[in-house]
Structure formats: C-alpha cells, structure tokens
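Researcher: Here's the sequence for the chain we discussed earlier.
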Amino acid sequence: MRVCTRCLLAGGAWLTLTGATVGDPVADKSAKAHELYQGGEYDKALNLYRDALIDRPEAPELHFNVGDALFKSGDYEKALQEFEQALKLPGDRARAQAHYNIGNTLFQQQDYEKAIEAYKQALQLHAADEDTKVNLELALEQLQQQEQQEQQQDQDQKEQDQEQKEQDQEDQQDQQQQQQDEQDQQDQQDEQDQQDQQDQQDQQDQQDQQDQQQQQEQEQEQQEPQDQQEQQAQSGDEPISPEEAQQLLDTLEDREEEAQKRRFRATGRAQGKDW
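Model: Thanks. This is the structure I predict for it:
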C-alpha cells in the first residue's frame, strides 16, 4: 500500500529556523538527525530531533520532523500529536505538508474519513501536490471497502443472529416436546398405577366379602346344633305328672284304636262291592 510521508528538514540549507544563525547547534542536530533518518535509523534520528526540540520547543519544523520519525517507528498516536503542532508552520505549502502527514497517520490508524478530510485540507493549501491526490484516492477506496466490509459484517451478523434465533426456537420446541412427552408418559404411568391400585382394592374387597360370608356360614352351622340342644334342653326341663302321662298314653291308645276302626271299615266296604 503506497502511503508517503515527507520529512521536512529544519535548519541549514533545508529550512531556515526562525532566529537560526550560522553554526546554530539546533540546526546542526536537526541536520545530523536528518542523515540518520535517511539511513533508516529512525530511533537515533528521533532522539536527536527531540534534543533539538528541547532547545527550541516553539519550532514547528522540529515538531514536524519528530512526528515523522515517530511515524516511521510506528508510534502513530504520538506522531499525530506532533504533526498537529506542526500546523503552526509558516506558509501554505508547509502547513499543507503537515495536513498531508496527519492524513497519512490517520490512514495508518484506518480512520479513513478523517484521513480524507486531512488530505482535502492539504490540497486546499497546495492543490498541485500529486502525492496528496494519490493518497486521497487511496483513502476513498479504503473507506468504500471498509463500508462494504462493515455492511457485509452487519449482514453476516444478522444472518448469524437469525440462525441462532431459529436454532434457539428449535431447541425450545424440542425441549417443550420432550417435556410434553415426559408429562404424557407420567400421566399414563399415574393412570396405570391408579388402575392397578383400584383392581387390587376390588380384589381385596371381594376377598373380604367372601371371607365374611364364609365366616357367617360357619357361625350359622355352629349355631344350629347349639340351638337344637337348647330347644331339647328347654323341652326336657318340664317334667309331667303320672296322671298327665297316663292321660297322654290313653289318648294315644284311643287314637290308635280309632285309626284301626277306620282302616277296618274301609276294607269292609271295599269287599261288599264285589258282587
């Protein structure tokens, strides 16, 4: 990905610092730092730039170069702070370069909307700068891709949420069905247990009834001889006198004699008709 930053040199022949003179130690440090920067030794260059900035903290050129060294070191947050201090640079082109590097720093932080605004401000100050135009176009492309990715992520998240919702509903239905099946099974078991208990109770009642009837029959069988004995005992308990006994005997004899006469008369009549 092509994103360019520029190192705005302070002092010497590159850029005259406000109030700088020949042999200015601040300008010398800045020049030496620039050499280290060009050699890719960004940490050493940063240290020299900061030393120079301590000697001249009000110099926006040094803030610019410190920010550029921080950018190369990957410390974008601190680089952004230094580039914002560099916006105090005199001249539109110098400020355009500060906006340009602010745009580059925001681009690296993937804050493409703010990066685009920074590039536009740089072009307002220096409209002919080709690097700014290139990076602005690139930032617009990245913003479009980012928005598409976010839309796709939103769509994917919605689909995932919908799938999760459907899965949750399915799981809930399965759980409800399982609970219903368990309840039906429990109801059937309770009904069967109740029926078994009722059958057992009916059998027990029938057995009790049979036992009771058998007991009553046994008691009745035992009671009849006893009643007969009691009746016999009661009849034997009343003695009769000799007169009553003789009278009873006479009565029986009279009845027997009368019975014989009736039998005789009946026999005689039957024989008389044989003519």
